[in-house]
Amino acid sequence: MNPFDLPSSSGSSDWLIFVALLLAMGIPVFCFVIWLLVFRQPGKKRHRHRKHRHRRRANPTLAQTGGLPPRRNPNQPPLGP
Question: From residue 22, how far is each of 9, 17, 28, 32 by CA, in Å?
Fold first, then answer.
């Protein structure tokens, strides 16, 4: 007698153990496949949406502000204190 054999009283209990082990391994695999097909949806990739703020430059260029101011009359004194 092999020491690794389980004692069985009849042949039908061997099939019962086999079916129980098959179900014990098959149910988690079946649930995993259903999860993959239903919830994961392999055709769609998930992207995280990032909010991008439009940054203003601190000092715009003269081209962005409309160019140089008009020429000042040389006879007029400068403005300011």
Answer: 21, 8, 11, 16
Look at the pTM and tell me if it is higher than 0.70: no
Q: Which two tokens stand for residue 79?
A: 């403005």
The closest alpha carbon to 65, from 56, 73, 78, belongs to 56
Q: What radius of gyration, in Å, describes the C-alpha atoms of the chain?
A: 40
Distance CA 81, CA 79 (A): 7
Q: Contact at 8 Å (CB) between 14 and 8?
A: yes
Walk along the chain (81 residues) and give the pLDDT tens digit of each residue: 566 666 655 567 788 888 899 999 999 999 999 888 887 765 666 667 777 777 776 888 887 888 887 788 888 887 776
